[in-house]
Amino acid sequence: MSKIIVSPSLLSADFANLERDIKLLEMSGADWLHVDVMDGLFVPNISVGIPVVQSIRKITKLCLDVHLMIQNPQNYIEQFVKAGADILTFHYEAVKQPRDVIDLIKSYNIKAGISIKPDTLPEKILEFLPDLDLVLIMTVEPGFGGQSFINYCADKIKVIKKHAHEGLFIQVDGGINDVTAKICTDLGANSLVAGNYIFKSNDFRSAIKLLRQGS
Ligand code: DX5
Ligand code: ZN
Question: 5-214 belongs to which homologous superfamily?
Fold first, then answer.
């Protein structure tokens, strides 16, 4: 099986010490950095945006995996690309023409992802899989860290896996810990986002290792 990508969610980091936390994650074997962007409209919470991505870009070479939980993501793609995002994932539920948004992201030669909320069926996005680099299956309602994993969301992994091209990242996000990570990787997920599980541990390195254990 191919390597499992661990993408720690910076939503659980100490924003007053973001550089310290990012360096620690780098030293602890993180593959990507997951940046959660929330606009208070698509989700009932507000987090960070373009200037923070730009600042993070200056201090790390790790892949910036940016999860846009915003309405009208198409209006902000260029700015996030210029800020240094390597992957831009938008929500299927937030746009009218997913194909146009995928094309726009790919026109900048970065990776494009689509995310689906817990109540969105995976069948809705199958037609886009050939053009996508990543599918993000939300395993909690987007908006907040520290929620519990929703079991029925894991079944969607199988559906996506069945239709996925070889290079597709199948990512899960929300309530991921050592136990739920294994459920997801056994079903075919190959990219794990984890916030609380990593940041609440006192040893990032072993937390990241435990997440990869199922691989
Ligand atoms: C939630 C975010 C997640 C969140 C995950 O809307 O998309 O990335 O930070 O946090 P945990 O791992 O604590 O559930
Ligand atoms: Zn996320």
Answer: Aldolase class I (3.20.20.70)
